[in-house]
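Minimal example, chain plus 6-chloroguanine.
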Amino acid sequence: MRIDIVSIFPDYLTPLDLSLIGKAREDGLLDVRVHDLRDFAHDRHRSVDDTPYGGGAGMVMRPEPWGEALDAVAGSGDGVPHLLVPGPGGVPFSQAMARDLAEQPWLAFACGRYEGIDERVVEDSATRGPVTVVSLGDYVLNGGEVAVLAMVEAVARLVPGVIGNAASLIEESHEDGLLEYPVYTKPPVWREREVPPVLLSGNHAAIASWRQQQRLSRTAYRRPDLLHASATLQAAVGEGLGDVAGLRLAVATPADAPELLVLQRACWVPEARANESFDIPPMVESLEELRSSFDGWTTWVVRTAGRLVGSVRGRVSPADPAVWETGRLMVAPDLQGHGLGRALLAHNEGCAPDGCTTLWINTGSRSAGNIRMYRKAGYRLTPGPGRFPGTVDLTRLVVRRQSRTPGPARNSSSSG
Ligand code: 6GU
């Protein structure tokens, strides 16, 4: 594979001489060529940037040096390279994209700096061959160089021959959409911490099953967005919602907050009346407060035909890492009574990480319907007042299913 990189800081790319990538270059598997953009700037100061048309902060990279540099790269081989332009406004880079790029014979990277490259450079290059603007994630780097190091490493290690042990490519985070299981080595006890006994058992089936379980619970806890939750929920919902088209479950984003606030207000009116107080957080909290709750909690929203019709949220208790809390379980008034609430509760219970042994939920002390539903789901009332004034707490133990091939996304059995 050939890789060309154009940058005003060629030295930034020197790590590509090292380690597996450096070895692959020596072995002739990778042909990496780094070019200095300033070699294509011909004015007295070899300038590569200028002020933005329309005003605004910072500088923009001039099109002329970029055009010349990319022409020179594209003209120096057979065919055309796939041009990748790193930038925070690009399509998200992923393992799937790395796999795709690893099959292409020639990649070129254009490392922008400052506020970016004159837009016409991308348009012009796109008349010659494929161009993809690509981002590593939702944060801002000073330039594309560090992103290119990451992308070249992710792609190059998938090129046949670059990594000796091909098996290590298969059993990996993101290769099949789940995170990797935790790993341990000697000694068996370190700072009073034992290696999980199953790994010392010699029972390979039990080890494989334990590892898969770890992958699922880790993914549910750290990256719930990776789980295909809608299938799970559909399976869990009873007959009554059979004709509610395409219920889709997803982790809430800030863009969901306004609708969620409206649904929450509607759903808590009966609670407020039953408990004779409208002065409760779901009724009074602001949009901003609701939005900032997405930080500490994983909030799930269900939509049908675009309409937000249900939600639930979960977190590890800040006071006790063995407790998984469920909160703000709600279903639109016209869709209640069909099992959607139970399914959301079960879904959230299933997101409890391995370290959690107790499930906790809280409701108004006079919310008879809620209390009945939670009891049916296996919860027991904690005697005495709940965490908040006028509420009761309910808890149940986590029951972990011991299955060899766990179904999608679940790691605790529950009644819903
Ligand atoms: Cl690929 N480039 C830059 N400059 N900033 C980024 C990025 C890329 N990905 C996230 N932030």
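The chain has a mean pLDDT of 90. The two ends are 52 Å apart (CA to CA).
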